[in-house]
Design goal:
By secondary structure, the protein is of the alpha+beta class. The protein is globular.
Length: about 270
């Protein structure tokens, strides 16, 4: 197995993106680059200099089609899609497409080099209801983290005892139960006639994002290629980042912690 650096990691990520984009185009599934990838395309014409992942988004109906059709129709078996709806061992409330001929180690999970695929769901117009959705998502994430944590808790004897008791209770639930609850909660308002979108499986808390921002897509440059982006990307990015053309302070320019590898020929298919 050969360890790779950021440049080759990005190349491998874009190979996954190219494959997914082509699959979606061939099968009439709408997608667009999103999050830091969209921001990078508009502000830097490529990756944000300190970024090391790729995000795309789909409306829920397209995400549902993708998760059903990709395993059936994909012609290259090295690309695999996983999501909480179809895999009880999956640790995230959104999906990823991974290259199984690679290895990507992050946060204690062994994956292939991958891209994130986020479903975008109908969201209530009322701010209080929207905040309630995000608060529930965040509480469930905390519960999942507590369930999965096996480290020694900090603090005095009473605090450590309380933490161990909480963990004991949480482990009565199946692994990643709270992740699946996040995925289920995300669709609460789908099909109820609302005009806004919510990012209920991600980290962001975008508000007042009209579905009309993604009525149409355009091609935008990213590195040496072009990908689909919402025609209303300015509305989208302002909802996520505010004044998105302003660079953040250096202390906030954070990279993920990971190790990435490419498998040798005799390792592919032999775990």
């Amino acid at each position: 197995m050969r360890k790779i650096g950021m440049d080759e990691l990005r190349q491998k990520q874009m190979e996954v993106l190219d494959y997914v984009a082509a699959f979606c185009d061939e099968n009439g599934i709408r997608y667009w680059i999103e999050g830091g990838t969209l921001l990078g395309a508009i502000r830097h014409k490529g990756y944000i200099p300190w970024d090391d992942d790729i995000d795309i988004a789909m409306l829920r109906e397209d995400y549902t089609r993708f998760r059903k059709e990709f395993p059936e129709k994909s012609r290259d078996p090295k690309f695999v899609f996983r999501c909480a709806e179809d895999d009880k061992t999956w640790h995230l409330p959104f999906g990823k497409v991974m290259n199984t001929e690679t290895l990507f180690l992050q946060d204690g999970h062994d994956l292939g080099i991958n891209i994130d695929i986020f479903p975008m769901d109908d969201a209530p117009d009322d701010d209080a209801l929207m905040d309630k959705m995000y608060r529930k998502r965040d509480r469930l994430k905390v519960l999942n983290a507590a369930q999965q944590n096996t480290g020694k808790p900090s603090g005095n004897v009473l605090r450590r005892a309380a933490v161990y008791c909480i963990r004991l209770v949480l482990r009565c639930f199946p692994d990643y139960y709270f992740i699946r609850k996040i995925a289920k909660n995300a669709v609460k308002y789908d099909g109820k006639g609302y005009e806004n979108l919510g990012h209920f499986t991600a980290e962001s808390k975008m508000k007042h994002l009209s579905k009309h921002a993604v009525d149409e897509t355009i091609e935008v440059p990213f590195e040496d290629r072009t990908y689909k982006a919402p025609k209303g990307y300015d509305v989208w990015l302002r909802s996520c980042f505010g004044d998105y053309m302003q660079l953040p302070p250096e202390k906030d320019r954070k990279r993920h912690t990971y190790e990435a590898f490419v498998k040798e020929a005799d390792e592919v298919g032999h775990e």
